[in-house]
Amino acid sequence: xxxxxxxxxxxxxxxxxxxxxxxxxxxxxxxxxxxxxxxxxxxxxxxxxxxxxxxxxxxxxxxxxxxxxxxxxxxxxxxxxxxxxxxxxxxxxxxxxxxxxxxxxxxxxxxxxxxxxxxxxxxxxxxxxxxxxxxxxxxxxxxxxxxxxxxxxxxxxxxxxxxxxxxxxxxxxxxxxxxxxxxxxxxxxxxxxxxxxxxxxxxxxxxxxxxxxxxxxxxxxxxxxxxxxxxxxxxxxxxxxxxxxxxxx
Length: 249
Prior knowledge:
Layout: H1 3-27, E1 37-45, H2 59-63, E2 65-74, E3 81-83, E4 90-92, E5 97-102, E6 105-109, E7 115-116, E8 122-123, E9 129-132, E10 135-136, E11 144-146, E12 151-154, E13 157-161, E14 164-166, E15 173-177, E16 180-183, E17 190-191, E18 199-201, E19 203-205, H3 211-248
Antiparallel strand pairs: 1-2, 3-19, 4-18, 5-6, 5-9, 5-14, 6-16, 7-8, 9-10, 11-12, 12-13, 14-17, 15-16
Helix pairs in contact: 1-3
C-alpha cells in the first residue's frame, strides 16, 4: 500500500483529535475554573530504520512518518480573575485546589462559585459540600465573609476555614466533569496552611482559554483536516487510474 496513505490517515486522526479538544475548550470558555485540554503528539517513521545501528534511510523514509500516539493533558496555568462582588465567590491565585466531598470521595476544583444549601452548608453549584480543615463547613444565617487566608466568618465569628491543597507544579489529576478533578494513581494532595493560601474573595477565576485564539485555532485545524481528506481522495484517484491504465496495457 502507498506509504502516503498511512501518513495521511494518521495525520487526519491527529487533526480530528485536536479538533475535538479545541471544540471542548471553546464550549467551556465561560466556565469558571476550567482548565484547557492540550494534545501531545508522538511522530515516528513508518519503518524502524532510524534505530541505533540501523542503516541511513532515504528522504522518502524520513518523510513517510505517522502519528503513533495522541495524549490529552491538562493545562493548569492560571486563568484570568474577574471581580463579581458575591461574598461566596472565591478565586484561587497560584497553585492550589479547593476540596469538595462527593459520593466517590474527595475531589478537587478551582471553581469557587460557592453557595449555601438548605441546611446552611457551604456547597458548590452542583451541590457538593465544600470541605474545611475540620470537614463540612456549616455557615447558617448572618453576614458571611471569606478571608484571603480561607477563613469563613459569620457576623465576625469564625465558623471554619476552606481546605486548600496542592499537587505540585504538575498536578496528577484526572478530569471528571463539572470542573472537578480526581487524583491519579499515587497522587497525594498536600494541605496548604493559611500563609501559603492566595485567595481573592468576591472574585472568580475564569477559564484559561482565549476565545479569539481558540477560534483561529479551530479554523486552522478544520482546514488542516479537510486538506488531509482531500489528499486521501487524490491518492485514491491516482491508485484507481494506475490500476486501470496497467490493466489496459
